């Protein structure tokens, strides 16, 4: 590994951590396209580059998810009974999603990722929130919902907040508590996703050194270390900056990164 690669990983971790704190996201939308580009530059096996980017991003979300969970718990913004009931479905869906991702080639994965990020960007620009219209379902309903959220999260390497928050708000959960509960749900998503990508990549040959399964651990360590430093800075600025404008700019960034990843994969 050359020094440029290491510095790039540290910078990516700092950048992702800052925006994770600013917008309350896991950071997969930033990490996956940039890791894809960096892995291409390192001449990693082209057929596995996107799988490695998804896996590494998912593993890097784990420490961020833990820090976010603890912060929201201190503010009593986590509905733990909901977390407990939705987690079995989350674990099943996320783990199964990694098997689907491992089966697919890079091209359909890249297209799905980019389409989903376009959806996330549109949500940010429109800033629409679903109107509360029902109550939280029982265990079976929550578990089924968690399976769907987990499966999609595994395919795009996100913490699930883009899906979990609107669902909880729709079920008459206040927005701050929905965000806090979603942050708690992000931990089993990240853990199950990382574990699934490790299992699916164990039998793959010719992967780079320091890789376990599809997870490239030097990148995980570098990004996690920097995100711990910059995430609190982003969280503080969230209360001082014009978030509505920043979200629109960030949406443009997500679309741009997704397009860049498509070009990288198909080129």
UniProtKB/TrEMBL annotation:
It comes from Cellvibrio fontiphilus. It is found in: Cell membrane; Membrane. Coiled coil: none annotated. It is a multi-pass membrane protein. It holds the Pfam family TauE. The chain crosses the membrane at residues 7-36, 48-70, 77-100, 106-126, 138-158, 178-199, 211-229, 249-266. This is Probable membrane transporter protein. Belongs to the 4-toluene sulfonate uptake permease (TSUP) (TC 2.A.102) family. It comes from the Bacteria. The lineage of its organism: Bacteria, Pseudomonadati, Pseudomonadota, Gammaproteobacteria, Cellvibrionales. Keywords: Cell membrane, Membrane, Transmembrane, Transmembrane helix.
């Amino acid at each position: 590994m050359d020094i440029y690669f290491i510095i790039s990983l540290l910078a990516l971790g700092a950048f992702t951590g800052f925006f994770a704190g600013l917008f309350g996201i896991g950071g997969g939308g930033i990490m996956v396209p940039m890791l894809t580009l960096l892995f291409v530059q390192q001449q990693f096996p082209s057929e596995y580059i996107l799988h490695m980017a998804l896996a590494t991003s998912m593993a890097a979300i784990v420490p961020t998810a833990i820090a976010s969970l603890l912060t929201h718990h201190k503010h009593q913004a986590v509905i733990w009974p909901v977390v407990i009931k939705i987690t079995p479905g989350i674990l099943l869906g996320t783990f199964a999603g990694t098997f689907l991702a491992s089966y697919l080639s890079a091209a359909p994965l890249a297209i799905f990722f980019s389409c989903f990020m376009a959806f996330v960007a549109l949500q940010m620009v429109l800033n629409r929130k679903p109107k509360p219209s029902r109550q939280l379902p029982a265990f079976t309903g929550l578990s089924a919902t968690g399976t769907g959220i987990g499966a999609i999260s595994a395919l795009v390497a996100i913490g699930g907040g883009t899906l979990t928050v609107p669902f909880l708000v729709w079920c008459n959960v206040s927005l701050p508590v929905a965000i806090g509960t979603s942050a708690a749900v992000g931990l089993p998503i990240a853990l199950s996703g990382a574990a699934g990508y490790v299992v699916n990549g164990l039998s793959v040959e010719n992967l780079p050194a320091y890789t376990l399964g599809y997870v490239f651990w030097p990148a995980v360590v570098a990004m996690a270390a920097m995100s711990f430093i910059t995430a609190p800075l982003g969280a503080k600025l969230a209360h001082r900056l014009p978030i509505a404008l920043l979200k629109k700019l960030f949406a443009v960034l997500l679309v741009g990164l997704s397009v860049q990843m498509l070009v990288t994969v198909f080129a």
